[in-house]
Every structure is written in C-alpha cells, then in structure tokens.
Design a protein that fits this description.
about 150 residues, alpha/beta, Rossmann fold, five-stranded parallel beta sheet, 6 helices, 5 strands, about 40% helix, globular
C-alpha cells in the first residue's frame, strides 16, 4: 500500500508517538505500507521541526528529519498529471500533488480541508484521504482460525 503522510501525521508518528498511529507504524515497519515524500514536503517538515513549541535542538531536529527521510521514498517534484481538487490552503496542495504523482492509495492527514476534499463529488481525488486511525487497511489481518 502506497501512502503519503502530511506533516502533522509525520509528527504524530515520530515525535508525539501518538497511539492512534500504532497501526500505521506497524504497517510501515512490517513492509505492508510504503510512504512517499518529495523535496517540498521534506522542506515543510524541516521548517516545522524548528518551531519553538517542539523545543528540539538542532541535533534532535536533524535526527527526526533523518528518520523520516530514511523511512519515506523520495519522489521527484514533477507536476502531477491528475486533475485534482484544490485545497483552500495552498500549503496542503503539495500533499495532494505528491499522492497523485506516486500513485498513492491513501493520503493520511488530520487537516480538515484535506479530509473534506475526500468527499468532493465534483472532482474526487484518485486516492482516499483519511485520518491515520481511520485507515482500516493498515490494520494487520486477523489470524486464521486453527
């Protein structure tokens, strides 16, 4: 399964270690899911990690950035071919474009505007947009009965 994680989900996963991302963490660790990023999304993560509210020194910022950069597969920044719905917040459009370019199955986000676009009837995105805890496909398959 191909995933794109917006910056808040990356933070939930790697900085906050939010239990709602446990299935996502397991799917990535077990190879059942792969996440993708690009230069624009990595630049946003780098900028956000420097915010004073996270109280990360330069070494901690670099370590978290490197952890995600090592986890995610990098995609080139070529324009997306898909006819995508437009986000009200232009900063979020890059996640939509990335998901289209890499052929993502899911864009995981907590952003209300992105989640709203998942239900666009006029121009639905070619991938699902969900909060990470709603991504049931990331859950491990039940053990078969013996």
């Amino acid at each position: 399964m191909k995933l794109v994680l917006d910056t808040n989900v990356v933070l939930d996963l790697l900085f906050w270690r939010d239990p709602r991302c446990a299935a996502l963490a397991a799917a990535l660790a077990e190879g059942r899911a792969r996440c993708f990023t690009d230069d624009a999304c990595l630049a946003e993560l780098e900028r956000v990690l420097a915010y004073p509210k996270f109280a990360l020194d330069a070494a901690a910022q670099q370590a978290l950035y490197a952890r995600y950069a090592g986890l995610a597969e990098r995609v080139d920044d070529a324009p997306a071919d898909a006819d995508l719905p437009r986000c009200r917040d232009a900063d979020d459009q890059k996640f939509m474009a990335l998901a289209a370019r890499c052929g993502a199955d899911l864009l995981l986000s907590r952003d209300r505007e992105l989640l709203r676009l998942a239900h666009s009837r006029r121009r639905p995105p070619p991938f699902a947009i969900l909060a990470p805890e709603r991504a049931a496909a990331l859950q491990p398959s039940p053990e078969p009965a013996r």
